[in-house]
Amino acid sequence: MAEIVIHEKDLDIYTHTEKQGMMWGVELDPLPSPDILVKEGSILSIGNMKLEVIHTPGHTQGGICLYGEGLLITGDTLFAGSVGRTDLHGGNIQELRRSFNRLMSMPDMVRVLPGHGPESTIGREKRENFFALEG
Q1: How far apart are alpha carbons 134 and 94 in whole angstroms?
Q2: What whole-number distance in Å separates Cα of residue 118 and Cα of residue 95?
Q3: Is residue 29 part of a domain?
Q4: Is residue 4 part of a domain?
Q5: Which end of the chain, N or C, is surrounded by fewer C-beta atoms within 10 Å?
Q6: Is residue 58 part of a domain?
Q7: CATH code of the domain in which 75 resides
Q8: Full domain range(s) for residue 51
Q9: Residue 63 vs residues 6, 12, 85, 103, 109: alpha-carbon distances, Å
Q10: Residue whose C-alpha is closest to residue 75's, from 38, 108, 114
Q11: Interior CA angle at 83 toward 24 and 92, to 5°?
Q12: pLDDT tens digits for range 58-116
């Protein structure tokens, strides 16, 4: 069974998911407690792969990316050509811009696996992402 891993700064939003669902008219079952709380620099092992936690707030206060072996799993921080929303609870456009710029300092060949949509590379995002182009 997969473990539930979240950044410690998203614990509050995670534990109140039922209330959030009600705001959207969705009834949710209580969520299990997280198995692992991570923070900047934590290391997760998946099989033989080791991934470092990079704290990337902006979409949420506890947004994270996982980096290792030329691979960057970005969740809702970075998408091919776009970035995560900042208009929901915990979102902050200035923090997301700092997180985005931090990711753009990685080597161009790093493969990006976002939470939604097609994969990309850091190099492609430097050239084509609207966030990079507007500022």
Answers
A1: 14
A2: 24
A3: no
A4: no
A5: N
A6: yes
A7: 3.60.15.10
A8: 38-133
A9: 8, 13, 12, 13, 23
A10: 114
A11: 65
A12: 999 999 999 999 999 999 999 999 999 999 888 999 999 999 999 999 999 999 999 99
Q: How far apart are CA 133 and CA 129, in angstroms?
A: 6
Tokens encoding 118:
């097609």
Kindly state the tokens that stand for 61. Answer: 């206060």
Q: Give the count of beta carbons closer than 10 Å to the beta carbon of residue 14.
A: 17
Tokens, residue 132: 């990079």
Classify residue 18: in a domain, yes or no.
no
Q: 73 — phi, psi (to 5°)? A: -95, 115
* The dihedral formed by the CA atoms of 32, 19, 117 and 49, expressed in degrees to the nearest 10: -30
Exposure of 73 in the CB half-sphere (CA atoms within 13 A) = 12
Which DSSP state fits 34?
Answer: P
